[in-house]
Q: What sequence folds into this?
């Protein structure tokens, strides 16, 4: 009897103490953002710095400003391992907690969440990845992919190549190779590149890399060696990137004619090739390095206080870390915009969708955020959920990335019609795809 | 007609007109084959001794390589780190024998297979906890492994050879030779073969099953360490190296689960076969065919030799 009483007393005291610890936290208003990250598995090399950047920027806002608009951001990482199945499990496990938006960090997971977003009324923010056609806000009111889509990126890569050979008309008869991860992500740029190849008379040589061959690309690079493409473009992620850079060095491919997508440009990717990787190019849409006031604030308010998830503080400001920062900046700005539009401090997911749809991060706001030089202005509209913003080309100098081009606008005239047609095809394939009922920039 | 030409004529024309490239393809296939064979060797050692298909072989490769690189990152010089990593694999072998295998003696094979799947998940978790999930750079140069690239003139063109690949081939050949002598000429090797033939008969003549299992798992651990160094040097040391274990399956189907020479010959056949298939015929199917071509080669072979190239033909009366 005594045992039962003691047990009951213990349980009661545990509940009481739990309640007492919850109460003060509940007193402070907060919003909840789950972060779908991958710090384990085959793609952890890319996923860890991104997760660190996302975590640290949100934590910096909490520490420095008390969150956004006086509301603390409660964030929680859920490990997806970059697999669609675990990504969906994370989504299902967290959506009931009042999630404001999802950042899947995987094209495969994004494709799984797109049909769910409209049903559950929670927006998906796939920053510069995912389904390109999702930029069509009329068809996909709940999906956002700023600052640019994969097709925008592919068109910028081709513009850069054209600028080096003397114009788009000089591409005729040339061979452009695309080495890509044989997965939804890697296949995304194909329609745009095939269109440009047809219109400009160049040959597009494709080199798919199966997921289980990321570490052994000798076949692909033998083919590249045999074909000798004039330029190479890479759509790689995870272990595919450093292996490709190593193989390119081995076969003696000219590194200054090898351009990776923005996801193939982590410092580790280039470092893997040693001295031979010097000259390797990638696209980018964010600044690299720690020389930005916002990153300095992260150091001051998070890293120096021991609140960062970074294991090595010297990696603050590396390219993928800064992409995580960029993503969290978009999260915070969407919440801030939603607060401004609704007048509410604690916004819900539908408010945040409206916030995302009204994003207008201009030069003044960029400066105010301490990110001047880090990015170009981003504007999202009801029709265009990406914004087709500019990107630049950076080059590995053997130790760090150096910006070697101006910010270049994508070929919007090519991308937009293709994108709208693809969105219509998606809706037809997934019929009955719900017609948009959400007001422009509203609920 | 065009298709027939593309299948039966064009590839051979390409081979004939650019023999340097053909030699390059065969060399790359040979190197891949040697590395597949190293992974397969780990499976064969354990299967020979205990009849267990060790699902954890892939993660053992990762764990061994991470232990080596992780120790070096902590300031241990390369060669002592290699010794300590070898010690880690010994401790792992003893632990597996005590905790996993010993309690499961006389259990059906499927139970042991399931145990190795559990072991895989455990080692993934332990590895991530101890070493973190970040990819690491193999300490190739610190170990004194050459990393240069040789360009050898051949038929008027250049054959490109990576010194790390040449090292991998030499190390694999030495390792196989050592294991072959070890199994054929030493007391432990003979005991191991006795255990492989019949556990109870081996026990009845005084062979310690537990000791043999520790030795075999340790040997497989050393093979995993060498494999991890070689694969890690080609790319990076990360948990996705685990998937290379899948490459051993067609090799094992082809070479037989119980034959060390089978692992080597099977590895080379798969490595060279898939490279030639991918380079000369892959484009007809959109490229990226080598992942399944390896299985196709192995399965086609099974039609003629179900026990594999060097596997034992088992006839059971029913």
A:
């Amino acid at each position: 009897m005594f045992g039962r009483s003691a047990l009951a007393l213990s349980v009661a005291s545990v509940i009481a103490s739990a309640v007492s610890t919850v109460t003060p936290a509940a007193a402070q208003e907060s919003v909840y953002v789950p972060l779908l990250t991958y710090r384990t598995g085959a793609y952890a090399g890319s996923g860890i710095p991104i997760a660190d950047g996302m975590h640290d920027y949100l934590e910096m806002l909490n520490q420095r400003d008390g969150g956004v608009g006086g509301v603390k951001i409660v964030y929680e990482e859920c490990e997806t391992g970059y697999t669609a199945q675990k990504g969906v499990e994370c989504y299902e496990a967290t959506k009931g907690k009042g999630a404001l938006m999802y950042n899947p960090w995987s094209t495969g997971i994004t494709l799984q969440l797109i049909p769910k977003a409209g049903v559950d009324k929670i927006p998906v923010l796939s920053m510069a990845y995912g389904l390109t056609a999702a930029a069509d806000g009329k068809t996909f009111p709940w999906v956002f992919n700023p600052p640019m889509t994969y097709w925008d990126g592919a068109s910028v890569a081709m513009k850069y190549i054209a600028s080096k050979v003397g114009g788009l008309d000089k591409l005729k008869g040339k061979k452009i190779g695309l080495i890509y991860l044989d997965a939804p992500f890697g296949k995304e740029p194909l329609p745009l590149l095939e269109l440009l190849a047809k219109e400009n008379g160049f040959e597009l040589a494709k080199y798919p890399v199966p997921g289980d061959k990321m570490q052994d690309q000798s076949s692909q690079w033998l083919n590249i060696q045999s074909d000798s493409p004039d330029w190479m473009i890479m759509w790689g992620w995870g272990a595919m990137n450093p292996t490709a850079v190593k193989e390119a060095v081995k076969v003696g491919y000219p590194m200054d004619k090898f351009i990776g997508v923005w996801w193939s440009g982590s410092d580790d990717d280039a470092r893997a090739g040693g001295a031979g990787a010097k000259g390797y190019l990638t696209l980018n849409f964010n600044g690299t390095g720690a020389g930005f006031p916002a990153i300095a604030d992260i150091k001051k308010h998070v890293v120096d206080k021991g609140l960062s998830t970074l294991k090595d503080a010297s990696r603050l400001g590396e390219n993928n870390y800064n992409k995580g920062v960029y993503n969290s900046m978009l999260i915070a700005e969407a919440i801030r915009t939603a607060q401004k539009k609704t007048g509410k401090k604690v916004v819900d997911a539908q408010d945040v969708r409206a916030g995302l749809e009204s994003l207008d991060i201009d030069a003044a706001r960029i400066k105010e955020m301490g990110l001047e030089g880090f990015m170009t202005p981003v504007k999202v509209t009801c029709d265009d959920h990406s914004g087709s913003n500019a990107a630049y080309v950076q080059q590995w100098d053997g130790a760090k990335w150096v910006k070697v081009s101006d910010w270049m606008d994508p070929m919007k005239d090519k991308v937009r019609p293709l994108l709208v047609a693809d969105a219509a095809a998606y809706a037809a394939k997934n019929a009955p795809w719900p017609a948009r009922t959400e007001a422009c920039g509203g609920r | 007609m065009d298709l027939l030409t593309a299948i039966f004529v064009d590839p051979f024309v390409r081979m004939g007109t650019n023999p340097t490239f053909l030699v390059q393809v065969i060399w790359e296939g040979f190197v891949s084959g040697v590395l597949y064979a190293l992974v397969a060797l780990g499976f064969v050692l354990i299967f020979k001794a205990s009849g267990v298909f060790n699902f954890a072989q892939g993660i053992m490769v990762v764990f061994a390589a991470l232990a080596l690189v992780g120790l070096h990152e902590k300031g241990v010089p390369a060669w002592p780190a290699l010794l300590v990593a070898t010690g880690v694999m010994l401790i792992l072998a003893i632990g597996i024998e005590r905790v996993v295998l010993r309690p499961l003696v006389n259990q059906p094979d499927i139970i042991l297979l399931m145990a190795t799947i559990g072991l895989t998940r455990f080692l993934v978790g332990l590895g991530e906890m101890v070493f973190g999930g970040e990819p690491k750079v193999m300490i190739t140069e610190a170990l004194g492994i050459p990393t240069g690239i040789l360009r050898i003139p051949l038929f008027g063109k250049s054959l490109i050879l990576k010194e790390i690949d040449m090292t991998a081939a030499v190390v694999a050949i030495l390792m196989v030779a050592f294991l072959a002598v070890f199994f054929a000429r030493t007391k432990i090797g003979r005991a191991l073969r006795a255990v492989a033939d019949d556990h109870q008969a081996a026990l009845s003549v005084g062979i310690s099953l537990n000791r043999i299992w520790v030795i075999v798992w340790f040997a497989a651990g050393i093979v995993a360490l060498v494999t991890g160094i070689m694969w890690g040097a080609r790319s990076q040391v990360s948990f996705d190296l685990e998937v290379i274990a899948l490459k051993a399956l067609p090799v094992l189907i082809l070479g037989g689960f119980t034959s060390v020479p089978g692992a080597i010959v099977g590895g080379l056949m798969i490595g060279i076969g898939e490279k030639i298939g991918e380079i000369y015929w892959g484009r007809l199917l959109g490229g990226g065919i080598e992942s399944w071509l390896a299985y196709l080669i192995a399965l086609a072979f099974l039609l003629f030799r179900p026990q594999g190239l060097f596997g034992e033909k088992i006839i059971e009366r029913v």
Summary: Chain A touches chain B at residues 39-45, 47-48, 182, 206-216, 218-220, 222-223, 225-226, 238-239, 242-243, 246, 249-252, 268, 271-272, 274, 311 (CB under 8 Å). The longest helix of chain A spans residues 2-27. Chain A is about 45% helix and 15% strand. The mean pLDDT of chain A is 91.
